[in-house]
Amino acid sequence: xxxxxxxxxxxxxxxxxNTPLIAMTKAEIIRAGLELGVDYxxxxxxxxxxxxxxxxxxxxxxxxxxxxxxxxxATDPVRYRNT
Length: 83
Known about the structure:
mainly alpha
């Protein structure tokens, strides 16, 4: 769609979207981030973040994130309101 719906695409250019994480599990993504030194305290995956920045701890995104950290024997630094 980007090739059809953008100026560069309509003028013959080609847009390529790279998705290097798409085939990885959440645990694999978290492991890669830990190895790269990602500050996970600066990230939130939650679909229902509070005004104070707390993740809900109950939505699918939170549950997958928590499982990914657990599978890496790591603690998620994000503040959760329901865990």
